[in-house]
Specification:
With 162 residues, the protein is of the alpha+beta class. Helices cover 30% and strands 31% of the residues.
């Protein structure tokens, strides 16, 4: 019995240590800090400009985007969302091959991303999974009943500008 408790306690401590170590390895979101591929902030579109480009094109864009981070995945920073004009849903941003992650203090910061944007439909299951990763309540997650068409961005690199 004692051996089982020791094993459980050791497993819990190891799990928490790994989780916190992963977040501790991510540099704080200060102006000039880069994540992923090294990029610069020149010639980045605003969210509103991106909306217009995607409306005119085949629902795809490759280039740079500037925006304010409104949410970050609570688990390990595996995605962020960027603010859009009006009451439009935020832009979902993931990172190429999950090669890097974002710190929790990036919320409220302005960033420039370089990569590819697409308009796509996210399933109810995917929306619920993302809501859970954002720390939403069980009620909020259960209220997601319809797929949603929105902008998804896969970023090769991110730089904090302010």
């Amino acid at each position: 019995m004692m051996k089982k408790w020791f094993t459980l306690l050791f497993s819990l401590i190891a799990g928490f240590s790994i989780a916190f170590a992963q977040q501790a390895d991510i540099p704080s979101a200060q102006p000039g800090v880069q994540y992923g591929k090294k990029i610069d902030a020149k010639n980045a579109l605003s969210g509103q400009q991106l909306d217009k480009k995607l409306a005119k094109s085949s629902d795809e864009f490759t280039g740079k985007l500037e925006g304010e981070v409104v949410q970050v995945c609570k688990k390990k920073g595996c995605f962020i969302t960027l603010k859009r004009e009006g009451d439009a849903d935020p832009i979902m941003v993931r990172f190429t091959d999950y090669g890097y992650f974002m710190p929790q203090d990036i919320v409220g910061k302005t960033v420039v991303l370089e990569g590819k944007a697409k308009v796509k439909e996210r399933s109810v299951a995917k929306l619920q999974h993302d809501a859970k990763d954002l720390g939403k309540s069980e009620q909020e997650i259960a209220a997601i009943k319809k797929p949603k068409r929105d902008i998804s961005f896969i970023a090769d690199g991110v730089i904090v500008v302010k």
